[in-house]
Task: structure prediction
Amino acid sequence: MVEAVANTRASAAYARIREAIIVGRHQPGARLHIQDLSDELQVGPSPIREALNRLVSEGLVSQHDQRGFRVASLDLKDLDDLFDARCWANEAALRASIQRGGRDWEENVVLTLHRLRRAPRLVEVDSGLRGAQWESAHDEFHNALIGACGSTWMQNFCQRTSDAAARYRAISRAALGGQRGDEDEHVAIAEAAIARDEDKAVSLLTNHLRRTRDLVFNSWQR
Amino acid sequence: MVEAVANTRASAAYARIREAIIVGRHQPGARLHIQDLSDELQVGPSPIREALNRLVSEGLVSQHDQRGFRVASLDLKDLDDLFDARCWANEAALRASIQRGGRDWEENVVLTLHRLRRAPRLVEVDSGLRGAQWESAHDEFHNALIGACGSTWMQNFCQRTSDAAARYRAISRAALGGQRGDEDEHVAIAEAAIARDEDKAVSLLTNHLRRTRDLVFNSWQR
DNA sequence: GACGCCAAAAATATCGATGTTATTAATTGA
DNA sequence: TCAATTAATAACATCGATATTTTTGGCGTC
Result:
């Protein structure tokens, strides 16, 4: 999902700040002071600013001229906005994948599903590493599902919306103290997809996304 | 589409470089030297680099660590890739708009269509301003069509794919020396949309996009 | 006690300079 | 003449310092 090593300080800073935002370590709406990040990551201001500028176009950071950067904020309206986009994009991409996908696609779906089921769930609340591992496997599985759609543009968009959704999941997880058990849903989606049952697969996937949305919605407070 | 004035040199540089890429003044694959841009825009290297970093996440510029920036390249495979994404995204967004749109949406479609028809076409090959004016009106119309879909995320994605498509159009225009007459297509799409005929509107819009793709495809050479 | 104004402090956006890495040119040996 | 190695050049990534702008805090007035 993101390169472990980077040849440039800006790229390294980009990866780390990005991760921190998605995981929720940098909270929505919080200001991102150049100096603080500079101290934290042990690099000068320039690479930090370059990293932040990349994140701006990615929608993870918002920028106001002369007033610095802050973590893009989240709210219920945006949650529904995002939910719609995810449904539409994933539906189209999944249908195309089912139509166009070959053996390699099927095998990749099976493989990533297996890895997802094997990935450790978040048992204790603060075992960050385990959570990250599961999130990564989860990501891989959903990418595999739409991996044969034939459009990198659409896949990138799905990835981006998925990143945004991960931020909401992190909040909900922090509020509820655990994750829901949705292994069955993933299995069902994979089976329908491989069986080339477009409508069923889409319906299962859409409901899967909706349940995620509802979980976040219900755990929302302030 | 993009703010005319910017309070910061980085934002100003961003807008100008972006425009230059979309219009095709910076050609696909061309290297973007910091120094050159610095001289051209009369600002130091830092704002230029920040601008380029934003464009990287936007997909208009590619970056290779330690090897600088270059204009994102275009090819026929990417054209089809992009075409699929545009069709899927616009179909979903248009359907939602037709279902959810109210009076204000209808009126905006009519208004932007009128402005598009009134906008001067590109008569002479190098009258850049006129072309830009039409491109802008064209953009506004397509945005208006999906303006009531309810998802900013999806609208932003459509905008982004539309920008990429504009780059292909610029190439094809330069090769052919003119634009095709597609006023009728826009009128038909608008009418079907306002008549709330989902399937017809979607079909017209999809064909509209396909014709654009075909035009570019046929004018491709090197 | 609240509002507005002014000064002090902090933070940003930008510059110019420098170390490092890639690219080009020159040179040597086969 | 060409390949490979090395020197020279150019470009990039990064730093540290500075000018501007925003924010904060205090002060006086209504």
Notes: Chain B has nine helices and three strands.
